[in-house]
Write a structure and sequence with these properties.
By secondary structure, the chain is α/β, with parallel strands linked by helices. It folds into two domains: 167 residues, Mur-like, catalytic domain (UDP-N-acetylmuramoyl-L-alanine:D-glutamate ligase, 3-Layer(aba) Sandwich), CATH 3.40.1190; 136 residues, Alpha-Beta Complex (Protein-Tyrosine Phosphatase, Chain A), CATH 3.90.190. Helices cover 38% and strands 20% of the residues. The strands form four sheets. A six-stranded mixed β-sheet has the order 11-12-16-13-14-15, with helices on both faces. Helix 8 packs parallel to helix 9 and helix 9 packs across helix 10. The longest helix is centred in the middle third of the chain and has 18 residues. The protein is globular and about 55 Å long.
Length: 388
Amino acid sequence: GTNGKGSTSRLITALLGAHGLTVGTYASPHLESITERIRRNADTISEEDFGDILGEIAALEPMFPDRPSYFDLLTAAAFAWFAREAVEVMVLEVGMLGRYDSTNVASADVAVITNVGRDHTDFRGDWRRAIAEEKAGIIEDRSAVVIGETDPELVDVFRAEGGSVHWVRDEHFGVRSSLVALGGRHADLYTPGSRLEELYLPLHGAHQVDNASIAVAAVEAFFGRPLDRDVVQEALRSVEIPGRFEVVDRAPLIVLDMAHNPDGTEAVADTYTGEFHPEGGLTLVVGMLGGRDLDDTLAPLLALRPRRVICTRPDSPRAVPAADIAAAVARGLGDHVAEVRTTDDVDAAVRKAVDLLADDEALLVTGSTYVVGEARSTLRSLGFNARR
């Protein structure tokens, strides 16, 4: 899917683990350490094991007809470590689209499509269908297919690709109730086999309840039977997802979210307005990578009418210059007056933002995984609770 893959993968892993399985999870990108991408249940691969596995793969490289990509090597490392650890089930997060992704060498018992949205600017015309057709490539005839996307035309694309059964959100599974709770959401979910009521999810945002419904449906499809409500609750309560509306302090409110496309920032804005009500102003720290639509991605954030915006540049060769983001911010603010600053150093941007915050104000750091990863490190050094 375009959005929600990481959250849904973590939820699926927690659900499978709560049923006693040893789960190997491969996800991308990472926030602070590359070892975050490869996990056994809740534990990341050690740096020693990671180095050993890469050494074994490097010894085989002369046999490859083509030079493998960075993502190819990491995918191979994940598979090799999972084999060494004898995991019982793998949860694989697709890196890009699906059909030609490195992860698609694996045969899927359950294929999950979270949604279809625009992540990059290189699609034209009927881009939603084009993206759906590429994502559908993970589906095999033997796969149970769990579809979070609800657009009927796109659902038809996934059905046409194959699959043994197709469960579609809001038709076969979904959310009956989703309410704000202290530190997360209360939710009632339904699947083809059960109704799961009065669940607590320690994540912010209605979109995370949608992700939870997808995860529960996927695991029900995997086991071929309804799930026990208490086991589901045990799993959901255990979930932590760094960088997804991660609240690291409440007075002042400090939130980190790696949203990097219009759908993602819209979800962030909806969560902020729906679940938090700081009396003071909002400071945004924003940094982005190239290939995204700056104006459309920034629009939901600027609609929050921030008091100040600090535009920055993460440590990536693909990063957008802070001045370019500032120009897009100026366009998007319209008649609203806000203080706009620029710095090419994320650490400096976060430190300045924290220094300017009053206790009744809020800070939101967003725009890319790279920015959030660097910000977590800075906030931890300042004494805030951004856990590894």
